[in-house]
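Sanity check. The docking grid for NAP depends on where the pocket ends up, so I'm generating a full predicted complex first rather than guessing from homology. Inputs follow.
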Amino acid sequence: MDIEGSRVLVAGATGVLGGAITAELVTRGARPVLAGRDPVRLAAAARREGAHAVSFDAYDPSSCARVVQDAATALGGLDAVVTAFGAVAFGEAGEVGDEVAEYLMAVDYLAPAAFFRAALGIMEPGSMLAAVTGVVAEHPQPGMADYSASKAALSAWLGAVRREARGIGIGVLDVRPGHLDTGFAGRAVAGAAPALPAGADMQKLVSAVVDALSSGAELVRTAPDGTPVIERRAR
Ligand SMILES: NC(=O)c1ccc[n+]([C@@H]2O[C@H](COP(=O)([O-])OP(=O)(O)OC[C@H]3O[C@@H](n4cnc5c(N)ncnc54)[C@H](OP(=O)(O)O)[C@@H]3O)[C@@H](O)[C@H]2O)c1
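Predicted complex below; grid placement will be based on this.
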């Protein structure tokens, strides 16, 4: 996908990572539509990037599908949809309530899937779907069972959809970073984060994400030393 002039919906553009991905896309000449929940942060991000903004709540799947339609209308089509929103909770599995587990599954798995389901209906060959999952999708962590499970569910869904979408020329990118110092863990919907290692360099990751979109790669993961690694084919 040629980033210059591309029409990209970034969902979660009010977040630290989503905001940085949006800024990198704009720097490289893309035309984003920003989607977010918090109205004040969303308006500020849209002003900063000179972009159209649409609001959604990931706990309401119909709002996710609506945002895809609105973004496609605003831009005259979509070349990529990037989901960079999410929620986390901490605590041992027996202590985390069913409501929290259900919320994480809705926000971290079902909502990105709702975005992509809507996008698959309107995207042309050569387009890309991209989701930020996380290293927990392949290495589930104690104290984060439901967060790990929700990200693993999204990653599995992307894996199956990738194989379906190859036939219609649409690429599917899974971004699985390790820990980043975005403050995400401090905004958990329940529980308190354990001691975490120093975060990897977010700007390098963001650059790798946009490179991967550009080259049609299928996976961005973080090496043990924190360096982002782009894999053309996901395994
Ligand atoms: N930071 C890390 O260490 C790390 C590592 C691996 C993967 N990730 C993933 O990276 C993504 C972005 O996280 P971040 O580090 O950039 O943290 P962040 O700054 O806290 O961003 C979280 C984003 O998710 C949005 N969000 C949360 N609940 C929502 C809901 N119900 N509806 C709509 N939007 C909602 C927030 O919107 P509001 O502005 O409205 O709150 C915000 O835009 C997440 O999916 C996270 O799982 C993070």
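Relevant for the grid: The chain is about 40% helix and 15% strand.
Also worth noting: The chain has a mean pLDDT of 97.
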